[in-house]
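The following record pairs a protein chain with its ligand, pyridoxal-5'-phosphate.
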Amino acid sequence: MFDLEFLIRPNIRAMKPYSSARDEFQGEAQVMLDANENSLGSTGPAQFNRYPDPSQRAVKAELAQLKGVGPAQIFLGNGSDEAIDLLVRLTCTPGGPDSILLLPPTYGMYEVAANLNDVRIERLPLTADFQLSPEIVAGVLASQARLVFLCSPNNPTGNLLHAAAIEEILRGFPGLVVVDEAYADFAAAPSWTTRLAEFPNLVVLQTFSKAWGLAGLRLGMAFASPELIGYLNKIKPPYNISAATQQHALAALAAAPHFEELRQQLLTGRDWLAARLPELPLVAEVFPSDANFLLVRFRPDATAVYDYLLSRGIVVRNRTTQPGCAGTLRLTVGSPAENEQLLAALGEFR
Ligand SMILES: *Cc1c(COP(=O)(O)O)cnc(C)c1O
């Protein structure tokens, strides 16, 4: 029933991709005069005079090991935001009837990518506790959208979406099912990357921006079938991942113990905040979180709490205007000292 070729925009199916110098010649030659680089060297403290590997083979080889997938199942983007934009562009013709399906409240970049590409948006709100219900699943399966974004753990709510409901969508939805796992490293559930072989319509997004602590580097991952990854590679800018990013990602991937230490500290901080916040009279509800943040409902006035925290030098995210999120602020888990400072400030709110 799933037909990838049908989902790909006809002009993208037909187009010839750019062939870069590094596509046409790979490896090292003594004299490299094919790419109009500067053979004398680089300005600044480090050498970056050569174009980077456009297929990021070294990084993908390490990632394939870590994630238990093949290198041909990995796309790397300039942040997962680039993958989100390319997925919309790959499947939806601008200005036409094609649409994407969103389940608010959710990550804002899906909507921005659709608007930027002049693509229609359909919306099916999550339940009051930010979950998929049988009715919502039925609505997704009935939709004509070319792709649905499922954010799990969801931003800004922090919860995992029910796996059984996601599985029903994967089995019955004829478009692409994009499961955004930006926060998967903080979640007590297996990644959907472990199910790629079962679902040709599944795309899993992950990122180096959260648990890896590399938001400034801009490196995101998409995992899917080799056919779909081939199309993403066809339309990406040829050198979308810089040499600096590739080098740094390799160093980070070799530092597994440090990654694990950061991850554990953030989980400890999340549990510490989740245990103490409900003791404060101004806290009405702390939503369960499988991420590195907590969505918290404040009474009587979340925006007053937001402004007060700002006056104390603490910036959090005001989510009061998001669907279903009235009265809420999103608090990122910080260092132990920052978490204590946040809790102390909230305790002194009058
Ligand atoms: C933070 C976040 C991302 C990460 O985006 P990058 O471009 O990789 O930094 C993706 N999806 C969600 C839901 C996020 O919260």
